[in-house]
Amino acid sequence: MARSWKADQPKVLACFRDLTALFPVESTIYATALDIRADQSGQLAGKAGSKEQVLALLDKMSASHHFARPTLLDMRQAGRTTSEVTFSIGFVYTEGK
């Protein structure tokens, strides 16, 4: 049972590791949700201190051989009294293929 379940599931931990490596160590950008489907397509949601941080992450994903077609799905101000933004990025995890 465990073998068939594991073999049919997306590589969630590998994707999480590869995605985490793209985030800067010292920054105000972070993930709030990660959804990875069986077809390896996924969606990352998060918050950042600025739009530039989100665009820099998107650029890193585009340059990475682990993620295909990263697309900014949404980016907006998190609230009226903050410069923080929320964002959503769609992608396909390729495991470095």
How does this structure look, described?
By secondary structure, the chain is of the alpha+beta class. 30% of the residues lie in helices and 36% in strands. It has helices at residues 2-8, 12-20, 51-63; strands spanning 30-36, 41-48, 67-77, 85-93. The chain has a four-stranded antiparallel beta sheet with strand order 1-2-4-3, with helices on one face. The longest helix has 13 residues, at 51-63. The protein is globular. It starts with a helix and ends with a strand.
Distance between the termini: 28 Å
Element string (H = helix, E = strand): HHEEHEE
Strand content: 35-45%
Contiguous runs where pLDDT drops below 50 for at least 5 residues? none
Q: Order of strands across the widest beta sheet? A: 1-2-4-3
Q: Which overall shape is indicated by the principal axes computed on the Cα atoms? A: globular
Number of helices: 3
Number of strands: 4
Classification by helices and strands: alpha+beta
